[in-house]
Design brief:
The protein is built from 1 helix and 8 strands. The strands form 2 sheets. A 4-stranded antiparallel β-sheet has the order 1-8-3-6, with no helix packed on it. Strands 2-7-4-5 form a 4-stranded antiparallel β-sheet, with no helix packed on it. Strand 4 and strand 5 form a beta hairpin.
């Protein structure tokens, strides 16, 4: 019986030693992981800032296209900060009758930055009595590329008079 108690005691002592070693290893790994996480978070501490502006492009103030698909390339009148990541384009539709169409489908992107992304605008307004529609889209921006925005009209349809039109403006940008 003495041998078996010693054997059990030695076995328990071995288990305690193994568990202690595993705990030390786990704590060391945890410390390394926490340090790596802190470093990663510190590297991502950039914040995004929204800046409001109003950039008017005369060619895009009262667009009333009917079955036309032009492309407009507009130069930004002043340089944007190098850390600009997106520009915000206003899409405004003015619709003032009951029996007309105001359709405009347009892709917007920074000229030369097609890979960065394209904002697609799809609007179909028909027989909506005396309404305006407004929203904003973000267009990816790369400060190392051109200072021009490209507006490619994919389709258009406008009837019902000269009070149905669209307006596209830059109304802000995002810094990071």
């Amino acid at each position: 019986a003495v041998v078996s108690t010693q054997s059990t005691g030695e076995h328990l002592q071995t288990q305690v030693s193994d568990l202690t070693a595993a705990k030390v290893k786990t704590e060391a790994e945890l410390k390394i992981t926490q340090d790596m996480a802190r470093t990663a978070v510190a590297g991502c501490s950039k914040t995004w800032t929204l800046k409001r502006t109003q950039i008017v492009f005369p060619n895009l103030e009262k667009i009333a296209l009917h079955q036309q698909t032009p492309t407009y390339v507009e130069r930004m009148p002043t340089p944007l900060p190098n850390n600009t990541r997106a520009v915000i384009v206003q899409v405004f539709c003015n619709f003032w009758n009951t029996d007309g169409h105001a359709y405009l489908n347009v892709d917007i992107h920074q000229d030369g930055n097609e890979e960065g992304g394209v904002a697609s605008v799809e609007n179909t307004h028909y027989r909506v009595y005396a309404n305006t529609f407004y929203y904003e889209v973000m267009v990816p921006w790369n400060g190392d590329l051109s200072d021009r925005l490209k507006f490619e009209v994919k389709s258009s349809y406008q009837t019902g008079g000269d009070r149905n039109w669209y307006r596209l403006r830059v109304v802000g940008y995002i810094l990071a």
